[in-house]
Amino acid sequence: MRDFFKTVLYYIKPYKYQVLLNVMLNILTAIFSLFSLAMLIPFLGILFGSQELILVKPAFAFSPQVLLNTFYYYMSNIIVESGKTKALVMVSVFILAMTFFKNLFAFLANYFMAPLRNGIVKDIRNRIYNKVLNLHIGYFSEEKKGDIISRMTTDVQEFEWSAIASIEMVFRDPILIIVFLFSLFFISPSLTIIILVLLPISGIIIGRIGKSLRKSSGEFRIRMGTLLSMMEETLGGLRIIKAFVAEKKIENRFIAENEEYTKIANRIFRREYLASPLSEFLGVGTLMVVMIYGATLVLGKKSELSPEVFIGFIGIFSQIINPAKSVTTAYYRIQKGMAAIDRINNVLLAEHMIKEAENPVRISEFNSSITFKNASFKYADAEVLKNINLTIPKGKSIALVGQSGSGKSTLVDLIPRFYDIPEGEILIDGQNIKNIKIKDLRHLMGNVNQESILFNDTIFNNIAFGVEQATEEQVIAAAKVANAHDFIMEAPDGYQTNIGDRGSKLSGGQRQRISIARAVLKNPPILILDEATSALDTESERLVQDALINLMKNRTSIVIAHRLSTIKHADEICVLHEGKIAERGNHDELIEKNGIYKKLHDLQIF
Ligand code: ADP
Ligand code: MG
Fold first, then answer.
1. Got the DSSP string for 321-389?
2. Which of 384, 447, 531 most suits a substitution to test ligand 1, by most atoms within 8 Å of the C-beta?
3. Bridge pairing between strands 580-585 and 445-449
4. Which residues, judged by CB distance below 6 Å to any ligand atom, belong to the binding site of ligand 1?
5. What's the CATH superfamily of 2-348?
6. What is the pLDDT at residue 190?
7. Measured between alpha carbons, how far is 168 from 26 in angstroms, rounded to an integer?
8. Ligand 1 centroid – CA 149 distance (Å)
């Protein structure tokens, strides 16, 4: 609970003036609400004729009794001059006016609350988005995508509900309850004490149920994440699902998960629905005790309480039931919201595994070489790379070959620090990459991967993605280098054609050439090509290969290639085998050696 309020406090800080305004308006609402109810007492007094007329104006003093008597003095004047009915109408008009202001202030309080509640949600969403952008890549292989989306959307929504509930619970309902209790105490201390004894008992009963809500709510949110993951996966895999006629299978999985989700949802909703009737019942119970005790005071020999004051008391007390009810509801909301906050904080407080150095070295160019020194790496348990020693001089092209799973992609992921190595060093121009400013380091590199990663946007914007501002000429020039210009011109809107989700409106070869154009435009000194052509057919491979050769001119490149024909001319070829560099040399030397490379080579010839 403390953590929850700390989090809420953190997020409402920028909106403190709105909160202040809200509190003041709430106080005004409470006061007007109280007065409109208190008017019941003189109304009944006049009606029953039990209120004595006050014909002498009391000397002014700032005490409740004197103010009350002054009010009665004016009322008595009206009664004497124009009769009881006129006086009753006057009181009614007064009540109506008070009620008008009470509701006006209540509306204004909510009015100023709107930017607050939406602002909090906006801020928290921005923070999660920023965090997701900046977290290390490894974090996401551990988490489900849909679960993260659910944290960014439904959990934030839940937090909104509970945060607002808690603000209301702290700033609105208690103000009402306290103002009412004070006035009740003023009217009849002994009756109020009974209330003060009975209220906490209700509180304990309500609290018991609330606790269990939190646990179920946590489970509920996890299930929501799983559901979203399934939807996300289904959307991405529709082609395969249909091709394998697996609709029924995947649908049954979804239905089962959805069923579980709904079961928990029912449990939670039922418990939550209990909040309002429970507190109303407990409130009315208290009311009955108060009424019976009050009645004995009214009927008693000493007549400690006049009937109209007693009815006024009951009237005011009945108004406590509503805010007390919303405190209960708010409390249940908060219990639910705490589970959401835990899940949001789980992302927000996740540790960055790739840390920027304290005083990072700024670099803007690449001068001599990239060096791996005894670099070892593992994802979880098994070592993926063992003792890699490799130097890539500026301007050379190095090829990595080896069986699938031998660690080639992992090796090139280490250079832009997608993962950090626990042992050994990777140096750029003699500087450990852990000391270099991460942005500067990544600015040096351009990537083209097996799967082209494009965004649902125009061709132009996809090519211009990696640079701040690109002119049309620059984009076209890059597209020409990438052998992409011709097919782009044939697209319906040329460079302004939208390419669909992940570029789905383009062929594989076209997508890849857009990725290459993007790398050309960024113009990085170091180029990393991870099986850039292996997903393509021979025809488009040739187009892409030409584009790649254009791209590699005058650059340092690390090329992972599936087809050995494409790396024949590399300056050095490293054969990775089970995480180690097993052989190295140029093509002819390696063939000569008659080892792993020769075997791979022979396999591809047939
Ligand atoms: P290659 O690119 O040579 O085919 P990878 O570098 O992709 O090989 O993978 C090397 C090994 O690391 C494989 O055994 C693979 O299962 C494992 N691996 C790759 N990525 C991850 C990851 N994110 N988490 C855990 N293990 C991984
Ligand atoms: Mg790979």
1. HHHHHHHHHHHHHHHHHHHHHHHHHHHHTPPPSSPPPSSPBP-----SEEEEEEEEEESSSSEEEEEEE
2. 384
3. unpaired
4. 141, 379-380, 384, 402, 404-410
5. ABC transporter type 1, transmembrane domain (1.20.1560.10)
6. 85
7. 10
8. 25
Domain boundaries defined on the chain: 2-348, 369-605
Q: What is the pTM of this model?
A: 0.79
The number of angstroms, rounded, from the C-alpha of 4 to the middle of its chain's C-alpha atoms is 15
Minimum-distance ligand 1 atom for the alpha carbon of 407: 6
Measured from the CA of 410, which atom of ligand 1 is nearest? 6
Helix axes 307-348, 173-187, angle to 10 degrees: 160
Question: What is the domain class of 369-605 according to CATH?
Answer: alpha beta
- pLDDT value for 606: 63
Handedness of CA 59, 65, 67, 70 (dihedral sign): negative
Question: How much is the pLDDT for 177?
Answer: 87
Tell me how far apart the alpha carbons of residues 369 and 366 are, in angstroms, rounded to a whole number. 8
Q: Which atom of ligand 1 is nearest to the CA of 560?
A: 2
- To the nearest 10°, the Cα dihedral for 534, 535, 541, 545? -50
Closest by CA to 409, choosing from 531, 306, 554, 310, is 531
User: And the tokens for 329?
Assistant: 């509801």
Supply the residue whose CA is at minimum distance from atom 23 of ligand 1. Answer: 141
b/e burial code for range 207-234 (CB count within 10 A of at least 16 → b): eebbeebbebbbebbbbbbbbbbbebee
Q: Helices 307-348 & 247-273, crossing angle to 10 degrees?
A: 150
Q: pLDDT digits over 505-545, tens only? A: 998 889 988 998 998 898 899 999 998 887 777 777 787 78
- At 430, give phi and psi (nearest 5°): 80, 0
pLDDT tens, residue by residue, 367-389: 999 999 999 999 988 889 999 99
**Residue 354 alpha carbon to ligand 1 centre in Å:** 19
The helices-and-strands tally (H runs, E runs) of the chain is 22, 10
Residues with Cβ within 8 Å of residue 350, at least 6 apart in sequence = 131, 135, 139
- CB-based contact 443:519 (threshold 8 Å): no
Mutate to test the pocket of ligand 1, among 403, 409, 528 (most ligand atoms within 8 A of CB): 409
Residue 237 — pLDDT band, cuts 50, 70, 90?
Answer: confident
Q: pLDDT for 489-512, tens place per residue?
A: 999 999 999 999 888 899 888 998
Cβ contacts of 113 within 8 Å, gap of 6 or more: 18, 22, 164, 167
Tell which one of 376, 378, 379, 383 to mutate to probe ligand 1, the residue whose CB is within 8 A of the most ligand atoms: 379
CA of 349 to the centre of ligand 1 (A): 27
